[in-house]
């Protein structure tokens, strides 16, 4: 019998195929669990982030160093296995689904390229980290952001003509009141916007100032849009419409504001890209 020897090119293609299959399977599992969790905001963010990160990895697939040692490969497989076992035994989803994309991607990166190759995926890992980062923030920081959100919502209500008084995170109107809880702090939408900013920086050529500006604008838009949402809920409470309050608080209404923040940041990105394109055309016309 003739022995079959794999050339380095064929081994590389085999590695790419298996890594692609494993990655696609892990993404499918996470999306499936997210669908079952009944957390609409997480589902939309997860699909968006997975598509963006997968696209970035696919574009640079030919330049990736897919060499991993025994220990990092074993560690990567172990991390993935632990997450999958945890997923199979979940009774309540909580913050696990927010953190698992980063953990799974980290394990897959170790399996693919080892410790030395992790730097190839630092941008993509950072973007996925922002998806779950709100679950890792200390409660003191969340309290500060919640208070700032309450102040912003109170200012919006006052500026639009409502008679309000504020005490901490409590906003009082003549016919009702709202309490801005930590879940309405806007932390999730702010970090979602930061993750999108990282993806934008990775996908398009930007100068240094634009790379600094993009995350600042993204986080600011997320904070302001969430403040408007809280102010709207204050108006609804003042009118005594409990059904509408539930819609904008827990229902699909909360997703609408998340989409608004994404669209506004998309318009900002479009504006930056148009500026760069104009500068490039002017530069080419000179020479």
From TrEMBL:
Enzyme Commission designation: 3.4.22.-
InterPro entries (alphabetical): Exo/Archaeosortase_dom, Exosortase, Exosortase_cyanobac
Keyword Hydrolase on entry: yes
Keywords: Cell membrane, Hydrolase, Membrane, Protease, Transmembrane, Transmembrane helix
Enzyme class label: hydrolase
Topological type in the membrane: Multi-pass membrane protein
Statement: the UniProt record of this protein carries the keyword Magnesium: no
TM region positions: 12-33, 39-58, 70-89, 95-115, 136-160, 180-204, 216-236, 256-275
Entry GO CC: plasma membrane
Biological-process GO terms, alphabetical: proteolysis
Localization in the cell: Cell membrane
Pfam families: Exosortase_EpsH
GO MF annotation: an example: peptidase activity
Name of the molecule in the record: Cyanoexosortase A
Source organism of the structure: Hassallia byssoidea VB512170
Gene that this sequence comes from: crtA
């Amino acid at each position: 019998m003739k022995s079959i020897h794999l050339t380095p090119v064929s081994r590389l293609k085999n590695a790419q195929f298996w890594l692609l299959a494993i990655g696609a399977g892990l993404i499918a599992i996470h999306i499936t669990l997210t669908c079952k969790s009944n957390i609409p905001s997480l589902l939309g963010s997860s699909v968006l982030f997975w598509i963006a990160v997968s696209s970035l990895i696919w574009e640079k697939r030919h330049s990736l160093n897919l060499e991993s040692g025994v220990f990092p490969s074993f560690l990567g497989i172990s991390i993935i296995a632990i997450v999958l076992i945890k997923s199979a035994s979940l009774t309540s989803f909580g913050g696990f689904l927010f953190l698992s994309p980063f953990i799974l991607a980290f394990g897959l990166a170790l399996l693919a390229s080892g410790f030395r190759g992790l730097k190839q995926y630092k941008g993509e890992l950072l973007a996925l980290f922002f998806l779950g980062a709100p679950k890792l923030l200390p409660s003191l920081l969340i309290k500060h952001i919640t208070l700032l959100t309450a102040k912003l919502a109170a200012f919006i209500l006052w500026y639009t003509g409502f008679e309000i008084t504020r005490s901490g995170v409590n906003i009082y109107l003549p016919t009702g009141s709202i309490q801005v809880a930590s879940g309405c702090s806007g932390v999730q939408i702010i970090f979602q916007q930061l993750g999108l900013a990282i993806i934008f920086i990775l996908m398009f050529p930007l100068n240094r100032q634009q790379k600094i500006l993009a995350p600042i604008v993204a986080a600011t838009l997320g904070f302001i849009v969430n403040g408007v949402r809280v102010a709207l809920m204050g108006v609804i409470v003042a009118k005594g419409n409990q059904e509408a309050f539930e819609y904008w608080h827990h229902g699909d209404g909360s997703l609408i504001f998340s989409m608004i923040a994404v669209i506004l940041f998309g318009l900002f990105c479009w504006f930056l890209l148009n500026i760069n394109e104009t500068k490039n055309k002017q530069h080419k016309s000179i020479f």
